[in-house]
Amino acid sequence: MQTLLRSRLSFLVLRAAKPSIRPLITRIPLCQRRTYAKKAQSTSSLQPGSQQPLTKPTDIAEHEKCQEKMKSTVEWLRRDCADAAARASGRVTPALLSNVRVLGQKLEQVATVGVRDGSMLVVTVFEEDNLKHVEAAIYDAKIPSITPQRQDTRTLRIPVPKPTLDAKSSVVAAAGKKAEEARVQCRKLHQASLKKGKYEKRSVELEVFQDLLDKYVAEIDKILVDMKKTLGVSR
């Protein structure tokens, strides 16, 4: 009996000591999907507002109208400064009298203008009766250092002195005032177009019209700078 109990006990001890075989179950994590940051969109193809075209017919028409008026203002200043620079440069040419108007007509319609000895203008009228009108018109033009002198019943002599630096500076100063008048006129045209269009802040239309104004103001500045270089005036 004791032997049987020992055998039974030994069997239980051995069974308890023997490790149990259980299926090894490992949890395999699901593969996570790798994500990448989205590439930033390139802005190289984007256009600034001032380079984007206007789309509304009314805006396009107003832009063209404003541009034409600004262009006319700048061209007026360009011609005026060119004439003034020619007078102040010391070169004696018939262009010195280009602004003279005789009874509503251009000077060349009632007289011829020539150059003598490189320092004198000679004006010869077609009809003697017009001599007094031509003489008065030259005075009315208020051209600096230009004083007509009667030579005979049909001819005026106009000595042209060489301009001094002070005379050139005066011409540039007068041109500067006219340039400011041209800038003011362009700004008025710009404001009139904006008021008519009633555009929203930071809109494409505002940028387009501002770009137009900047363009012609820059042209005005360049006309004045070029005139100073031509006459050798630094201020």
UniProtKB/TrEMBL annotation:
The keyword Nucleotidyltransferase does not apply. One of its GO terms (molecular function) is ribosomal large subunit binding. Residues 87-230 form the Ribosome recycling factor domain. Keywords: Protein biosynthesis. Residues 39-60 are annotated as: Disordered. One of its GO terms (cellular component) is mitochondrion. It holds the Pfam family RRF. GO terms for biological process: translation. InterPro entries: Ribosome_recyc_fac, Ribosome_recyc_fac_dom, RRF_sf. The keyword Protein biosynthesis applies. Residues 40-55 have a biased composition (Polar residues). Belongs to the RRF family. Necessary for protein synthesis in mitochondria. Functions as a ribosome recycling factor in mitochondria. PANTHER family: MITOCHONDRIAL RIBOSOME RECYCLING FACTOR PSEUDO 1, RIBOSOME RECYCLING FACTOR. This is Ribosome recycling factor.
